[in-house]
Amino acid sequence: MASDIQKIKQLREETGAGMMDVKRAIEEAGGDTEGARKLLRERGQAQAQKKSGRATNEGLIEAYIHFNGRVGVMVEVDCETDFVARTPEFKEFARNVALHVASMNPLCVSPEDIPQDAMEEERSIAEKQASEMGKPENITRQIVDGRINKWVAEQALVTQPFVKDPDKTVGDLLQDAIQKVGENVVIRRFVRYEL
Length: 195
Prior knowledge:
- By secondary structure, this protein is α+β, with helices and mostly antiparallel strands.
- It has three domains: 50 residues, Helicase, Ruva Protein, domain 3, CATH 1.10.8; 91 residues, Tetrahydropterin Synthase, Chain A (2-Layer Sandwich); 41 residues.
- Helix content is 57%, strand content 17%.
- The strands form two sheets. A three-stranded antiparallel beta sheet has the order 1-2-5.
- Helix 1 packs across helix 2 and helix 2 crosses helix 3.
- It is globular, with a radius of gyration of 20 Å.
């Protein structure tokens, strides 16, 4: 009994889910903590998807200056209410996004935001490199598409592996934040300065 309470408490702290949700997930997983964690994550992502259409008119601007004073970042992260914008979880998320932008220097927030001229320039480079391989046209097209998809994932903030945990993308971190705070959260924009 005490071990069950300890499991519930630990999972609740890790996931930010409600106590009854955690208890149900542990029961459904047959007492397996990892299985319960996976169930909670799947449910949380489903809830986050439902919330993604809601208006985000509050939020905060987080600033980060790297220790050497040569890189600075400002990030606007929005949520639904000013109450959530003041919570430690929301502030920590915004801080982590600013730190990531300082470290990884993304081009834009999401893949849809990548400028068309940058995309065309990268495609022409990939086409030249692929044509020099002497492969059939259909293989060359697949190589080019693969390189472009990889380049896009490397340039967009939400598809980059998170600097503190490369097993997660910044998009995964965003979904976790939505689940923890219980509201829609949007990374609106950022600016990065470097000497």
